Every structure is written in C-alpha cells, then in structure tokens.
Amino acid sequence: MSAARTLAVGALLVSTVAFPAGSGPAPGPARAPGTAARPGPIVIGVSNVQSGPSRLLGIKLLRGARAYFDRVNAAGGVHGRPISLVVKDDGYEPGPAVRNTRELIERDDVLFLFGYVGTPTLVRVLPLLRYFEGKGIVNVAPFTGAEPQRRPPYDRYVFNVRASYREETRALVRHLHAGGSRRFGFLGQADAYGKSGEVAVREALAELGLDLVESVTYRRNDSFATDMSEQVRLLRQARADAVVAVGVYGPCAAFVRDARVAGWDVPIANVSFVGAGTMLDALRRESAARGRDLTRGLVNSQVVPSPDDLRYPLVADYRASTPPEDRGFVGLEGWLDAVVATEALRRAGPDPTRESFVRGLESLTGWDPGLGTPLQLSPASHQALHRVWLTRTEDGRWVPDEDQPP
Fold first, then answer.
1. Is the C or the N end of the chain the one with fewer CB within 10 Å?
2. In whole angstroms, what is the distance from residue 389 CA to residue 194 CA?
3. 209-229 average pLDDT score
4. Looking at domain 5-163+312-362, what is its CATH homologous superfamily?
C-alpha cells in the first residue's frame, strides 16, 4: 500500500510523500532497550508540477532526482541518514506553490527546498523565502533560468545549478545569426517566464545591433491541442526568418506543427525548459499521423549534455541507474541537481542544520560533478554552472549541434 496521502487545496489535489524513495517504510520490530536508534531521515521539500498539461516537466525532473537519491539511500544514506522527500503538486500555478512552500517550511520543517519548476511559481515564492529569512531556509536547483532569483535581494535565498535564460538565449541567437538569420521573431508564454525570455532575447539581439521583428504569446498551461496558427501568421507576416521560443513542450510543439503544416520552414529554437524530449515525442507522433516530417529545422539549448553522451562520467552514472524510458535531458538535470545537493549534505556533517547545509553548498567552488566543468558555488556566487549545450534535430532525434568535448 502506498504511504502517500492526499490533501485538498482548493480545487487542487496535493500529493504529499514523506518517506525515502520506494513504497514507504515498513513497520519494524520494537527497538530493544539500550540499543541505538537509527539516525532520522534528512527531509527535503519539493513543490512542483505533477498534474496538468505541463506535468511531465515536474515528473521527469523528480524522477531523475529520485533515481540518484535512491542510489544514495541504498548505499546507507548520507552519514548513515536516508534522504526523504516531501512532494507537493502545485500544477505549475503560483498560488498553490506559495501555499505548498509555507506548509513545507512551517508544518513539514524540511531542511531545504528543492526541485521547483518554473518562473511563475518561483517568483511568487521568493518573497516568502525573504519573509522566513530568520529560519535560514534556501531553495536549491529550481528548474528555471530566470533572473529574479539570481539578483539581490533574492539571490542569497536560492542556489541555482543550471545556466540562466540569458546564457541560453544568447547562445541560440548567436547560433542562428551565424547561420544567416537577421529577422528574429519571438514566441513566449504570457507570464513572468515568457517575459524573462523575451528580455533576454532582446538583450542578445541588441549586442548584434538587432531587435525582434515581432513577439507573440500563448497562455500558461495551454496544451498540444492549442491552435497556434494565428501566432504563426503574425510572425510570418513580420517576415521573421528565425523564431526563438520560450515556453513549454505542449504549446511549443503545437507552434512547430502549425508552422510546418503552413509550409513555413524557418529555424525554430527553444530553451531547455521546454522539455525537448517530450516536445519531440509529440512531433514524431504527429508526423506519423500526417505522413510528413514536422521535426526538421529545430534547435534547442540545453543546460546538461546529451543523456546519450557517455564521455561525461555524470551521464554514464545516470544511464547506469535509470531505465531507457526514463532517460532524457530533464531527468538528467534532476539527477545532476540531486548530485549537487547530496555533496553539500555530505559536507554539512552528520547532523546537518540549515546553516551548515548552506556552508556545504558554498564550499563547492571547483568541485566537478562529472561534467568536466567545475562548479562555481561560493558565498559570492549562487549559480553553479554557466555552460550551455546546443542540440538540433536530425532524423527525428536530438543530436549535438557542435563538437563539444567534456
């Protein structure tokens, strides 16, 4: 029987899991008098999207992280203590994310927050972290490249592992510009995530003396069923010769579908948050249904290498611990996040506090998690990595766009 319980929060069901990975702790025999108690678990709090059109982002990210935590627990935990996750579903909506975070801090008393998904949710949580400053709670490895948590006053409450959207979009713009594109269009989610991406794209273009010729949006939590033909029409009418999209797999795949069906074959680039594997899965299925290839001409920035690239020790470890159906860019990012968090826990000592855990994170300067790139976490820097990998579609799959040695 599952050890999960479900709490109703408005119309949203919040699944709370408060045990080490697996089916939950089985009752054991009573402890004999005078014997030592097993060290209690290290409890980590997660609020992310586990339901709705964008649920696969949260599910796959957490699946990758759990795979690593499972391995740590199977080997005896950290200083003999198992890692336990309390997971709450926010549906990729800000209101539930704030409520979940307050519960994780006040009721569940988690050591730190981890694995949050998305800009619109995280930016609403940031003031809450500042409000609870006296408790020393920090948010580790959010799945977003936005700027607010990278800048004062909120940068001290968040430890980012991934590169920023500024770094991703700059790499994409430079790549497309080198390929001859000069008239850039933009597709973005109509919220803080999309706006963060649009600002970053405009900044990258300004470095080249350019600006967007048109910008269009879609609503958060739209799905692949969404008709994106009007967005295609507006960008095509503006004579865009490349499109940079900052969105989620469903609507971004719908945009590619409607562009290609309309005969518009310009390069379309997405950032890592889109969920490149899931987006391509949808386009492959649609291609088969329509009898035409809708996957050509796509570019994607990534904040981890290809999950097939065994030159990286991190990737080799990830592949050895995950089944083929679970492997992907998002899952690998979750694995990386768990690797970083676990190393900080080791450095925090056998009885970690929030303060010692922060010290552990800030001591990771120069430590390589298996990417051939040392982390840059320190008291002065709360962003671990700045590297961006570019991928492109070839025969319906993602391949590295450049030869990027470890």
1. N
2. 21
3. 97
4. Response regulator (3.40.50.2300)
